[in-house]
């Protein structure tokens, strides 16, 4: 996928000035080294730039941005480059630079008494989790790419993951941010406060903005007590509707201990067995839910409560079978089936990816209507549907019928997107719940977003980045 070629390459004198900011250790100009920063790992987003700047401090970021502002040079900011919508890739033509924050990896402060941690934007999410655990705390943001994604990107896309049900998404986990503005000023918003009513909450303007309003260089993250007890279960349900009723029953029975509630179509398990050799723990079952409960202990408390709640669900007909993990290893095996779904689908054949959200109560209606509409047009399509049912976020990813070619199925992307997104709009949902807009959904956002809301977004962009130098051509249609 490529956009139109930008008008002019970055002049050599600008590149020389940028290189002088960081010295040789702070940039890449060899095409082979640049290439990984120009290519998305999925869906073929590709660009080209003459240089990748790799500053090691906020001061260096600010100096780079000042030069770009003065010379009219657009900037594409990257952290882990694990995005799924083309938001982190440059355009073709060499008129932009990539600014990678992957060398900004300092843990600036950990404050267990305040349950907070201040980190730079290039710190890998898994590292944040591990550093929190060292002081007996939990940083609950958790997603499949946590071993390579970085905090700056997590905040810029308002990342979600499997524990949003209990802890919220990235927006809820940031107490403060440090931002380099489009003209190279540094806003120090690293206040580790939970209550601050002194004006606008500016950090929320930059979180989820996909690098179009400012560059997040550091953040104060919110920590939680580390759970001492955990229970994991895979539950078969007679229908998608029963699964949502089960969610309500589990929350009533176990309260906030319900940390994750992942809904999975039965085809997710058959494809996982076929493509990656995963054993199906409940062969022949229909819709399934992978749920996790976490609490303060003592060890085993949650297991007893979960057993009782599942027994009631079985008796009420909300569940038909269940497996409770007897060990951490078994729990990890169950979670791997869920976490491997992206790769499973890559191996199963071309799929058309949707990252939608609707009110939790309307998930069964969405699935029923969308499946029926697609089946009428494309008999034999494979509805590989899974996601975070606890917060209404589904990855609705129809895979090509087995007798179709990948190319033929991909050619149907616009028609299938329109069908799915129109249904989401009728349900007052969102066409992107956690992956962001980037380039992938930019046109659809323009088609479906309220015109007043789009106008307000454009006003923000004009106010914060009047020259349109920060990640241009992304997010806003």
Question: How many helical stretches?
Answer: 17
Strand content: 15-25%
Radius of gyration: 23 Å
Under CATH, the topology of the largest domain can be stated as Uridine Diphospho-n-acetylenolpyruvylglucosamine Reductase, domain 3
What is the strand arrangement across the widest sheet? 15-12-14-13-17-18-16
CATH architecture of the largest domain: 2-Layer Sandwich
State the share of residues found in helices, binned by percent: 25-40%
Mean pLDDT comes to 95
Total tally of structural domains? 4
Number of strands: 18
GO molecular function, one term: FAD binding
Pfam families: FAD-oxidase_C, FAD_binding_4
InterPro entries: FAD-bd_oxidored_4_C (IPR004113), FAD-bd_PCMH (IPR016166), FAD-bd_PCMH-like_sf (IPR036318), FAD-bd_PCMH_sub1 (IPR016167), FAD-bd_PCMH_sub2 (IPR016169), FAD-linked_Oxase-like_C (IPR016164), FAD-oxidored/transferase_4 (IPR051264), Oxid_FAD_bind_N (IPR006094)
Domain FAD-binding PCMH-type: 45-226
Secondary-structure blueprint:
Elements lengths: L11 H11 L4 E2 L2 H8 L13 E2 L4 H14 L3 E4 L18 E4 L6 E5 L4 E5 L4 H10 L2 E2 L12 H6 L7 H4 L6 E7 L5 E4 L13 H4 L8 E8 L1 E2 L3 E8 L3 H15 L3 E7 L1 H11 L11 E8 L5 H16 L4 E4 L3 H12 L1 H8 L6 E3 L5 H15 L4 E7 L4 E7 L6 H5 L2 H14 L15 H7 L2 H14 L13
Helix pairs in contact: 1-3, 8-10, 9-12, 13-15
Family: Belongs to the FAD-binding oxidoreductase/transferase type 4 family.
Cofactor: FAD
Protein name: FAD/FMN-containing dehydrogenase
């Amino acid at each position: 996928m490529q956009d139109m070629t930008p008008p002019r390459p970055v002049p050599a004198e600008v590149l020389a000035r940028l290189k002088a900011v960081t010295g040789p250790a702070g940039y890449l100009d060899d095409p082979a080294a640049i290439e990984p920063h120009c290519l998305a790992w999925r869906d073929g987003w590709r660009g080209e730039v003459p240089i990748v700047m790799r500053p090691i401090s906020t001061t260096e970021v600010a100096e780079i941005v000042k030069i770009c502002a003065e010379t009219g040079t657009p900037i594409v900011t990257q952290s882990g480059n694990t995005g799924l919508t083309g938001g982190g890739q440059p355009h073709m033509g060499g008129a932009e630079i990539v600014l990678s924050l992957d060398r900004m990896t300092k843990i600036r402060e950990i404050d267990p008494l305040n349950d907070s941690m201040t980190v730079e934007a290039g710190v890998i999410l898994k590292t944040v989790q591990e550093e929190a655990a060292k002081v007996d705390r939990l940083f609950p943001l958790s997603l499949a790419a946590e071993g390579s994604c970085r905090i700056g990107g997590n905040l810029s896309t308002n990342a979600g993951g499997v524990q949003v049900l209990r802890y919220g998404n990235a927006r809820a986990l940031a107490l403060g941010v440090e931002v380099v503005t489009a003209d190279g000023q540094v806003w120090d918003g690293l206040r580790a406060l939970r209550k601050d009513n002194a004006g606008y909450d500016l950090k929320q303007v930059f979180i989820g903005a996909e690098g179009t309003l400012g560059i997040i260089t550091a953040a104060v993250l919110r920590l939680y007590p580390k759970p001492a007890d955990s229970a994991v279960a895979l539950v078969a349900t007679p229908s998608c509707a029963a699964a949502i009723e089960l969610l309500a029953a589990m929350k009533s029975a176990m309260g906030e201990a319900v940390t994750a509630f992942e809904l999975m179509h039965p085809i997710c398990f058959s494809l996982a067995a076929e493509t990656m050799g995963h054993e199906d723990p409940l062969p022949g079952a229909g819709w399934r839910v992978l749920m996790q409960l976490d609490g303060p202990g003592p060890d085993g408390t949650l297991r007893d409560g979960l057993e009782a709640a599942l027994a009631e669900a079985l008796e009420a007909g909300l569940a038909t079978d269940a497996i409770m993990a007897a060990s951490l290893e078994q729990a990890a095996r169950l979670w791997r089936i869920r976490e491997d779904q992206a790769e499973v689908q890559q191996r199963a054949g071309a799929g058309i990816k949707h990252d939608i959200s609707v009110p939790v109560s309307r998930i069964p209606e969405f699935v029923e209507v969308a499946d029926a509409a697609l089946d009428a047009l494309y008999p034999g399509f494979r509805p590989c549907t899974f996601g975070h049912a606890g917060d209404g976020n589904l990855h609705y990813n129809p895979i090509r019928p087995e007798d179709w070619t990948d190319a033929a199925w991909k050619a149907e992307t616009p028609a299938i997107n329109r069908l799915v997104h129109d249904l989401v709009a009728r349900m007052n949902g969102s066409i992107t719940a956690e992956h962001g807009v980037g380039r992938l959904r930019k046109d659809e956002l323009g088609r479906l977003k309220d015109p007043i809301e789009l106008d307000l977004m454009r006003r923000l962009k004009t106010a914060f980045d009047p020259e349109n130098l920060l990640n241009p051509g992304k997010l806003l249609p």
